Amino acid sequence: MQQTLFDVDTKTVEDISKPNTYKGIHSFHKYWGKKPIESIAYFIQNYTNESDIIFDPFLGSGLISSECLSRNRRFIGIDLNPFSIVHTNFILDLPNPDLYIKAFKEIEKSVKNKINSTYILENGKFASHYLWNNDELKQVWLRPETGRSRVELEPTPFDLNQIDKFFNYNIRNIRKATFFTNSRINSKSTMSLSDIFTKRALHNIDLIIDEITKYPPTIQRALYLTLTSSSGQMSSMVFAITGRGKTKNQVSDKIEVGSWVIGFWRPELHFEINVWNCFESRAKKLIKALDEINIEKYLVYDSVEPLLNANKGASIINNNCLKIMRSLPSKSIKLICTDPPHSDRIPYLELSELWNAILNQDVQFKDEIIVSNAKERDKNKNYYTEDMKSLIKESSRILMDDG
Hints:
Blueprint: H1 13-16, H2 37-47, E1 53-56, H3 63-69, E2 74-79, H4 82-92, H5 97-117, E3 127-133, E4 136-142, E5 151-153, H6 157-164, H7 193-196, H8 199-212, H9 217-234, E6 238-241, E7 256-257, E8 269-273, H10 275-291, E9 300-301, H11 305-308, E10 314-318, H12 321-325, E11 335-336, H13 348-358, H14 381-398
Parallel strand pairs: 1-2, 1-11, 2-10, 9-10
Antiparallel strand pairs: 3-4, 3-8, 4-5, 6-7, 6-8
């Protein structure tokens, strides 16, 4: 049986009010609005029986799915976000660690040197980081050798020439991304992926995707998610941390590497990081996570009907939840456990567009239940309220009397 984060039978309500941070496979990929798995598992264990159906109309990262199936419950998960479906299917069909390592090593052999050659310096070494102030290159960093500090270099004409080689690069493997003008997440409708990544980074991401597509579905999906989970650090959204210690009047002039935060903020002072190093770092994290759990394959359907006629498994569906809920039989669900969209706080599809573009997944923005500050979308509070009323009404209909 796949390992869960804890044995719920040993936990009290007081214990689950102080959950552990996400670990291992549950921390592999960023997603907005993750909730502590301990509380979800507590409800599953104490309010349902084996073969009961648990339903999540807003699937999100899909972590609830394995908590249900590992306890022999059936599960229906729906999300309009294609990324959510890909990630949930990944959780329920984890790759064999040896096969994943083999694939990673083959990709490393094929493209690592090609990617590093795009970051080569005049001295023949490979840069790990480039520090930019808007469009001006300020520093070039080398990875520290064992026991040494990083090397910070002034940029040279050679470095600038290396960058200029990719000025006219056209993306090959990533679909055109759709952005909206939304100040909450720092996006504009005129944006493109070239505003978020350097052309050099996009070239190198294309090289990795060339190799990923050669593998069978389970391995390919894990490799794609390795890429999307590292894509933020490959972007121009990695801010530079300055002024550490100012609250203690011990200000350091050392610059440190930040990370991609929520939204598409592109700070003036930011990093461009070696794409291979980012990909390799996430691959190693996944390898470690896979080594820590016992992997079990679960039965997964892409529609509801087969699950209703089975006594185990999951239906993972990419659609508007109201459309699917209206097709469910009355009094068929034992537990609805979900985290609905929080009005306009987190526009999930807009935020996930970077990942969905890399995954080449089509997105139906018009069907999202959300309030968005993007005027182009016409997703206001009235529409949201009506949709949520319909969802509550349907939830009441499909719940069992003791659900």
